[in-house]
Each structure stands twice: as structure tokens, then as C-alpha cells.
Amino acid sequence: MPLPCCAEPLPGAPRPVHDVPVVTQYASPEIVFAIAYEDHDPGDDPAWATSGAASQEEYRRWSRHLCGMACLRMSLLHRDGDSPALFDLLAGARHHGAYTEQDDGSIKGLIYGPFARYAQAAHGLAAAVHPQLTMGELTGLLDAGRLVMASVHKSIRTPAENPPHRGGHLVLVRGRTPEGDLVFNNPSGHTAATREATLPASRFADFFAGRGVALDLRPQPAPLHTPAGHTSPVI
């Protein structure tokens, strides 16, 4: 039985915003400011072990790359009331090729196509890749009841400032207000107000890279498959 916000609304009724719990990509939300603005070592997070990381060093290496896993965990918590830990989700995503480690030691990901296959295969969560997504299409997905992992610039946490470019970070857009403002959870929000944020669609567009992944929380009868030759963008 879908949650009230996931079910089809009555004719003429507005689509309710999904009531999604906040999950940050760091185990201790209160240190996000220091990590983002004061060059604080994320490996010093006192709660690192609660993330499911096998070691402090593993946490240090990967925590900056977990915005997509935080979005996935939020979605599963909303749908199921429970979810694997961030690093357990990361292990599954890496197994499916949604992250790759480069020869120079850098990490590439989240890669959308493999992530979508992982979400369906491991969690029964239909994930549709949108390598090109207009703002109109984004709001259409929200009005259809989807959660959308949208690629934005990380400075969306300070929306009064203009971003240097678009994309590179994922937030979970969970609906829009009757006025049309977008409501989203930011895994790297440095305050409560930036972790659960609302922005006018026109301002959100200044940070939005025009790509993302739409998540359908309704029960799925059969696995979805990414079409052969389908491009698979990265965050």
C-alpha cells in the first residue's frame, strides 16, 4: 500500500510533497559546515562508524562522494521505513559499476545507468535516467509523484550566491509547493534550513545541470532495463 503522498491524489487535488527524512552524506550533520568551508578532515567525523564504513580511512576516502547514496537512502527510508547504511548501499552500487576508481586515485561517480540498474535489482526501486531534463520536465516528474535526484552545483546551499557552473552534486527533489517552488533535501546542507530547502524554480534552475534520475516509489512488477546504447551521465 503506497504512502498517502505516493498514491494518486483525488481529481483536482494537488500532489502532496513527499515527507522524506533527511540523510546527510556525512555521519555527523553538525560538521558539514566545517568540512565544506573550513577544510575539516571528514575522516575526523566522530560518528563515522555509524555510516557502515569498514574503517576510518575508507570513510575519509568515500564520504565526499556519497550524495547519491544519501539520496537513495532517503528514498528507501521514506518508502520502507528502513534502509541499509550508506556504505552498504555504496558497496552494492560499486558492484554494479555506479562508481569507478581511476588510475590516478580519483573516484568517478555516481554513474546514472549502473545506478538505475542497481536500484531496481537490489531494492525494487524503478529509476529512470534523464541525461537531458528541462525544468518543465522536472516539474512534470514531480507532479507525477516521482522523487528526482537532480544534478546541481554544491553551492545551492547558499542560494544568494551565483554558482560558478552547474552540476556536480545530487539533491533529492521531493515535490513543489502550490506556488511552484521546488522542495528538496540536500545531503550536504550545512544547516537545518539548507538540508530541507525550498527554492523558486527559476533560482533552482541556476544551479541545475539539466540531468538526473527519477525514482518511482510504486511497487514494480518487473525489472527495468536501460536500453542498449543508452548514454549514462555522471553527477
From TrEMBL:
<dbReference type="Pfam" id="PF13529">
    <property type="entry name" value="Peptidase_C39_2"/>
</dbReference>
<protein>
    <submittedName>
        <fullName>Peptidase</fullName>
    </submittedName>
</protein>
<dbReference type="InterPro" id="IPR039564">
    <property type="entry name" value="Peptidase_C39-like"/>
</dbReference>
<feature type="domain" description="Peptidase C39-like">
    <location>
        <begin position="63"/>
        <end position="187"/>
    </location>
</feature>
